[in-house]
Structure prediction request, 359 residues.
Amino acid sequence: HPPPPPLSPPFHVRRPARRGRGWIVAAAVALTLAVAGTLAYEIARFGLPSTGGADPTAEPDTRPPLTRTAAGEVITLPGTSVRITENDSDPLKLTSYTADAGKRLYVRRAGGDAFVRDTRHFEYALRGDGVKALAVDADYGADGQATVSVVDHWTGAKRTVEVSRQPVFPTTPRWSPDGAYGLVTLYKGAAGNAVPHGFAVIDAERGTARAHQVGEPGAGEWRFFWDAGGRAVGTWAGGRMTFYDLDGRLLRTLPAAGTPVWVEGENVAGGRFLAHCDASGKTICVRSTSGGDAAPRVVPFAGDSLIGWWDDDHLAVWRPAGGGYQAVVIDLAGQVTRVLATAADAAEFRRMSFRYSPS
Prediction:
């Protein structure tokens, strides 16, 4: 199975200011015709009603009442038919998701269960401490720069970081294990015909980014992820697991790494990564990122999408169930220990993406 195509932004380009007219709604304070025109432009662009100064990035909470079962709390995700089940002790929780192939992003409110629509970004990855998030902005800047915002998840304050220039855009943000850096995969082109370009590392504290083009064919198609320790990044390239340093230089390849499997969250935990054992896709092999293991740990599982590591001894995976899919936790013997989510509509599920974060 091929990896899902990258979520791509709407590719609006924010217009530069003209003769002092503000083109950002948050900065529109003068009651002039020019600013009124700007406000109308912004409302039309985001498709939102006038908020009279309120934050236009989130829709009202329309979450249905929670249901508590013996297995935990059940939440129906707004805008979808997907239901998730949680316990307070879960090591991972769903913190954002997209629907309609990335056209709609929903983000979990800080400290609660409600998911609200976010129209300023098209991907949102919460850091493990629940304080900061990496949010890929939905627009290019006025100078054609694609940006990623480092967002305070509790206050909404953010710092915008320039990452790449049109037509290169970032996707699939991931936090380093220590939470100091962000990683995004770079694609080049427009929706429907974008091709892998490389990766960028974001310094969250300094608000800077370093972008690197990677020449190996296919590198980034399965997205880049952090290696153990956060001092290198990995991806599949030419059928091999390949690792690069943070300056884009090739470090090592693992020729006997199995075949790729799509991992929504973190592929690496404790120096081990996940891959199909062979092209049949009926088993998952757990291998060392150093390539030093004599034989991989084989986990019976037939499926093409993983959430990632649940803990050191369990995986969270998506499996076909009836006419849809279920997210379940399995141990390394392949036994199901928990049901995390149910997506009854397979077509709806295939147009969604899910981001879980440590709780």
Notes: The helical segments are 33-46, 346-350.
